[in-house]
Amino acid sequence: MAKPLSEYNRKRDFKITAEPAGSSPSKRKASALSFVIQKHDARNLHYDFRLELDGVLLSWAVPKGPSLDPSQKRLAVHVEDHPLSYGSFEGSIPAGQYGAGDVIVWDRGIWQPHDDPRKAYAAGKLKFTLIGEKLSGDWALVRTRLKGSGDKEQWLLIKENDQQARPAAEFDIVEAEPASVLSDAVVGKPKAKPKPRAATKAKAPKPSAALPDEFAPQLATLVDRAPEGDWRYEIKFDGYRIMARIRDGEVRLFTRNGHDWTERLPRQCKALQALKLKDSWLDGEVVSLNGDGLPDFQALQNAFDIGRSLDIVYYLFDAPFLNGRDQREDPVEERRAALKSALSGSRSKLLRFSEAFAASQRDIFESACDLALEGVIGKRAGSPYVSRRSDDWIKLKCRLRQEFVIVGYTRPQGSRSGFGALLLAVNDDTGLVYAGRVGTGFDQAALKNIYAQLTPLERKDSPLQKPLTSAQARGVHWVEPSLVGEVQFAEWTREGVVRQAAFVGLRTDKPASQIIHEQPRAAKSVKAPQTSKAGKAQATVKNVKITHPERIIDKHSGTQKQQLAQFYTDISEWILPFLRGRAVSLVRAPEGIEGEQFFQKHSERMAIPHIKQLDPALDPGHARLMEIDSVDALVGAVQMGTIEFHTWGATADKIETPDLFVLDLDPDPALPWKAMLEAAQLTLSVLDELGLQAFVKTSGGKGLHLIVPLARRDGWDTVKAFAKAIAQFMTRQLPERFTATSGPKNRVGKIFIDYLRNARGASTVAAYSVRARPGLPVSVPVSREELKGLRGAQQWTVANLHQRLQTLKDDPWAGYANRQKISKKMWDKLGAEPPG
């Protein structure tokens, strides 16, 4: 019943916008129906409410956003269907494009229609249940007879009167939860609530003014180049914006959206109190600094996660109110001078003044980008402080930049001459790999010059190692891969292509054969690649020679083979305790995670350097089981293409009596993360009631693993049956949430409690093992106290795990001991009988 996506595609130029192109509607694998609400700061701020049905996202624009108050019927304007891939889109739609402005994913999850959704949609009365990160409970979308602009239908979005409903006067979900559920980003102008002032012609503020209870910060406007005029530039910190209110000696700290973070920053509050300021509102940003003294956002998040405010520095850059004086109308340079003077007496290392730079904007910006900073903030000299986004404050963001091989071009459209966009590629071990396209950044002279060089290079076939899809290759003129162009862009996508690319210029100083996906240099402890007698590149990690060290294991993160080997070396003291003494199974991906993957349980004929082979009697009729008991064996496995390490639930010396069982909480991928956390808490409550201590780790995939250590007493059949009894008990108690039956069709809208990993010969990914997934996430132990703050099963990766480990105060699995026994009383509570 779904319409084609031609209307969606007609409105967009995908050479310019980063929005996903719409293809034919297609169904996903068995999964619940997804929903997404995107907050869209276009000409008017609104919320796009989207429901998956028949391979597309049915879409409505809700100007005021959803309300939890059943008495507030929110207008919902029906708009064109969107592709399913749009559900994860966040970014900025460029000026001049349809819907230009910033987009974030405000909420997402699954929806469950109460009746046949196709008939209800056609009849104009959809009733459904939402299970999202923010919204839940029962809702309705009802078509009205009101006429809107053009032929757009007018619907109403209504919250049903259930346990999740709340009066608007008590709670406004839109105001209380403004940020993205994917990135914590916020779009739109916050409501400023300064105390009204009487109109006056005098510019000077009153010497004394009542301090507002609430205060919204001034926000900067993103620009692509520095404007003319007198501007002051500061570093754009990669942290959290924090407003400090000081009244009657009490310090309170608030986020830009008004959330009170005072308790999360106790040392910063104490440092501000020591200044002994009178009534003030101070503006700044909290950051964590890395070893080079540069802001590190991941380190900041980790510091908050573990409550270590000592690692957080509060950079202050403005003072709209200071010592009882309203300074908002004062020039920015005067406000900042007063703030700097007020901070001069501070001895705390946690408070710092954000200095402005005297050099030119160009030099400051280039230096900031060279240091891998986020960018710079410019403030117009003489400007006042206003609690909204203002052109008096601007931000220039640094972008990624590197060379690419030009492999083709598309035809120009409209009045443009020469070509439309250039197709880009980089080299890897297999040949030229597609890296996206660039269609902006050219003036008329560049179009003419580059086109003249492309024409004699035309060829009939693609020079790429892997052919493009028919849609990607439509209208492309292929060329010999000899020209090199430099491009700046926002980021690499998971598919290994660039986003928001802009052309900088042709490069003649590098041959096309040397152009690769540029990566940070390897850690110092990894020896530089050398050439063996056979002519192959090698590196050495520990005592193991790594062949093809530069091979890209994961295009999303750009991680190379030798970097993965070094990662495992660096965390060896964390992972080896979970590998030693146990049979290990390996997930090997010799050509990287996008190539073929192998699951290997036995040593077979492959000689993995330094690996330990176990007694053949442990698994009769097969090649020997393997054990990783040293750093060299760990690295040796990586040399042979290993990414993941899985272990048995028993040690090799007592392989018939497991010393743990695992409950793998495996969700329908469409479920929101909040549903996973709730499921984990419910399952842990049941284990607590049984008297069993459990330990939690992220799976590095979609869910969580609950590990229950056991005394070595019962056999495999008993342990597996007990785990199954828990899964079945949870399913009986909450059938709408859990299933104990495997298979995607059985877990639609539910979480499968996978107990099958507890059979003899089965295995579970080890704690601190990398997963062979885009971004190389890691399975990481967490404490029960950390559980509610987890943001996802892939929160830690090879890129940021070391920051967590460096800042841990306590072992999250402290107290782990294999002494627990399964008792008859536990079986009785589950309503089950032990086997035999």
Automatic annotation (TrEMBL):
<keyword id="KW-0234">DNA repair</keyword>
<dbReference type="InterPro" id="IPR052171">
    <property type="entry name" value="NHEJ_LigD"/>
</dbReference>
<keyword id="KW-0808">Transferase</keyword>
<dbReference type="InterPro" id="IPR012310">
    <property type="entry name" value="DNA_ligase_ATP-dep_cent"/>
</dbReference>
<keyword id="KW-0269">Exonuclease</keyword>
<keyword id="KW-0227">DNA damage</keyword>
<keyword id="KW-0548">Nucleotidyltransferase</keyword>
<dbReference type="InterPro" id="IPR033651">
    <property type="entry name" value="PaeLigD_Pol-like"/>
</dbReference>
<dbReference type="Pfam" id="PF13298">
    <property type="entry name" value="LigD_N"/>
</dbReference>
<keyword id="KW-0547">Nucleotide-binding</keyword>
<keyword id="KW-0067">ATP-binding</keyword>
<dbReference type="InterPro" id="IPR012340">
    <property type="entry name" value="NA-bd_OB-fold"/>
</dbReference>
<protein>
    <recommendedName>
        <fullName>DNA ligase (ATP)</fullName>
        <ecNumber>6.5.1.1</ecNumber>
    </recommendedName>
</protein>
<dbReference type="GO" id="GO:0003910">
    <property type="term" value="F:DNA ligase (ATP) activity"/>
</dbReference>
<feature type="domain" description="ATP-dependent DNA ligase family profile">
    <location>
        <begin position="309"/>
        <end position="441"/>
    </location>
</feature>
<keyword id="KW-0233">DNA recombination</keyword>
<keyword id="KW-0511">Multifunctional enzyme</keyword>
<dbReference type="InterPro" id="IPR014144">
    <property type="entry name" value="LigD_PE_domain"/>
</dbReference>
<keyword id="KW-0436">Ligase</keyword>
<keyword id="KW-0239">DNA-directed DNA polymerase</keyword>
<keyword id="KW-0464">Manganese</keyword>
<keyword id="KW-0238">DNA-binding</keyword>
<dbReference type="InterPro" id="IPR014146">
    <property type="entry name" value="LigD_ligase_dom"/>
</dbReference>
<keyword id="KW-0540">Nuclease</keyword>
<keyword id="KW-0479">Metal-binding</keyword>
<keyword id="KW-0378">Hydrolase</keyword>
<feature type="region of interest" description="Disordered">
    <location>
        <begin position="1"/>
        <end position="28"/>
    </location>
</feature>
<feature type="compositionally biased region" description="Basic residues">
    <location>
        <begin position="190"/>
        <end position="204"/>
    </location>
</feature>
<dbReference type="Pfam" id="PF01068">
    <property type="entry name" value="DNA_ligase_A_M"/>
</dbReference>
<dbReference type="Pfam" id="PF04679">
    <property type="entry name" value="DNA_ligase_A_C"/>
</dbReference>
<dbReference type="InterPro" id="IPR014145">
    <property type="entry name" value="LigD_pol_dom"/>
</dbReference>
<dbReference type="InterPro" id="IPR012309">
    <property type="entry name" value="DNA_ligase_ATP-dep_C"/>
</dbReference>
<dbReference type="Pfam" id="PF21686">
    <property type="entry name" value="LigD_Prim-Pol"/>
</dbReference>
<feature type="region of interest" description="Disordered">
    <location>
        <begin position="187"/>
        <end position="210"/>
    </location>
</feature>
<dbReference type="InterPro" id="IPR014143">
    <property type="entry name" value="NHEJ_ligase_prk"/>
</dbReference>
